[in-house]
Amino acid sequence: MNTKQNISVIGGGLAGCEAAWQLAEAGFPVTIYEMKPVKFTPAHHYKGLAELVCSNSLKADRLASAAGLLKAEMERMGSLLIPCARKVSVPAGGALAVDRELFSDMVTEKIKSHPLISISSEEVSRLPESPAIIASGPLTAAGLAKSIEEKCGQRLSFFDAAAPIVTYDSLDKDITFFASRYGRGDADYINCPMNKEEYLDFYNALINAERAELSEFDKEIFRVYEGCMPIEVLASRGEDTMRFGPLKPVGLTDPRTDRRPYAVVQLRRENSHGTLFNLVGFQTNLKFAEQKRVFSMIPGLKNAEFMRYGVMHRNSFLDSPRLLNADYSLRNDPLMFFAGQITGVEGYIESAASGILAGKNLARKLLGKEPLVLPRETMMGALAAYISDKNVSEFQPMGCNMGILPDLPERIRDKKVKYQAYADRALAALEEYLSVNER
Fold first, then answer.
1. Which of 14, 52, 208, 434 could form a disulfide with 438 if both were Cys (CB 3.0 to 4.6 A apart)?
2. Same domain flag for 281 and 408
């Protein structure tokens, strides 16, 4: 009979699932409180746990990249989600992308099958007593959000946006072509090439298109996070901003002309069968009719069948540098942990990584052990250090990137070689740290 106390994990997203898994693997009974399928947020639609919303990509998979390094560290730390993702991956060049529904189904089944984890499908409107982990995400329901504010003080808010999804069969194959930029990986992306006239027509239509209305409250707090900016907001910053962003044509050749296009819209596979593709970088807050009108101007998408239009929703996150320790615990309540995007880590894998550490560290504290505060040389450690750094005054969400790691002792000009050196140092530091502290 297990005599350890039951731990509440609020939220069944990526961070909550990782946190619950780590607690259960440490021998603690866990209850995940997930309000789906009784209630859904404006951005969630699928019944299962660990639902991916904005994109089906978990970013680059090569070790000599920030995202690849983070995934390697997560696997070393006993991640539940990364092995699942590899089993239901879909072709995406050098990225790890998944079939969303298969991924959610697999994670849900593993969580339900664990003898120490139970799921309660109810909305939590008040913070539970510690010990607990709050992984309620950037769309935390109003009641719980108010309870968090009462305990933590002022939260920050921003908007996040999701891209449309179209069917493969509805694309014009005489115009589109498969290729990956820079020749990396297989030719997994569908490319829609534009000449200058087509681009300018699309640009003008986009910046003049009608956007969805925001409430008065939302207008007051409307702040666009740079990492997930609506395409129409990006376009409004200048005629060429899209061509140096998601529509950059570098590394691509239009087989019809044997020349580099003026601009390129890329589509990434959404499911394992290759029947659905999402418009890469096209998060948007345009009205649905406007999305159909404007995005159908993209060469190859004239008759595109939209299976999901882009949506926009408000996200919330803590002022973590003032509130959290590097182990993801509250400074004023060391057995109350937060994980996921509500902490200010930005992105799927970043959220999941924070869940791993929150789960492990709560278990360790309850067992009388010191928490794991990973070396700054590791990507997981650098992210935890950033969100808990008291010197960060204007706090904004942060995704994994090599820029948050300490400088290398030697100057390396070649980017690939430098990033590989970062990765090698990080994994060596992680192994050395865990060999001493992982007991």
1. 434
2. no
Residue pLDDT, tens place only, 161-205: 778 999 998 999 999 999 987 767 678 899 999 999 999 999 999
Q: What is the pLDDT of residues 235-286, one digit of tens each?
A: 999 999 999 999 999 999 999 999 999 999 999 988 777 888 999 999 998 9
pLDDT at 334 over 80: yes
Please report the pLDDT score of residue 1 as a whole number.
Answer: 45
Whether residue 9 contacts residue 132, with contact meaning beta carbons closer than 8 Å, is answered with yes
The SS3 of residue 136 is coil
CB 64 within 8 A of CB 419: yes
- Please give the angle made by the CA atoms of 398, 377 and 433, to the nearest 5 degrees: 125
378 assigned to some structural domain: yes
The answer to whether the CB of 348 falls within 8 A of the CB of 359 is no
What pTM does this model have?
0.80
Q: Give exposure, 422-432, as e/b (b: 16+ Cβ within 10 Å).
A: bbebbbebbee
Place of tokens 């019944």: 47
Looking at the chain, the whole-number percentage of residues with pLDDT higher than 70 is 93
* CATH value at residue 198: 2.40.30.260
The b-or-e profile of 261-272 (16+ CB within 10 A means b, else e) is bbbbbbbbbbbb
From 297, 314, 331, give the residue that closes a domain. Answer: 314
Cis peptide bond N-terminal to 131, omega within 30: yes
DSSP secondary structure letters along 19-66: HHHHHHHTT--EEEE--TTTS--TT---SSSS---S-SEEEE-SSSSH
Q: Are 134 and 320 in contact (CB under 8 A)?
A: no
How many C-beta atoms surround the C-beta of residue 208 within 10 A? Answer: 11
The total number of residues written for the chain in this structure: 439
Where do the H-state alpha helices sit in 208-335? 216-221, 231-235, 288-295, 320-323
Q: Which residues are CB-neighbours of 431 under 8 A, at least 6 positions away?
A: 76
Name the nearest CA neighbour of 294 among 235, 354, 343, 340.
235
Which residue, among 168, 162, 330, 192, has the nearest Cα to 256 in the 3D structure?
Answer: 192
pLDDT of residue 329 exceeding 50, the answer is: yes
Residue 333's DSSP bridge partners are 330
**Partner residues linked to 162 by β-bridges:** 311
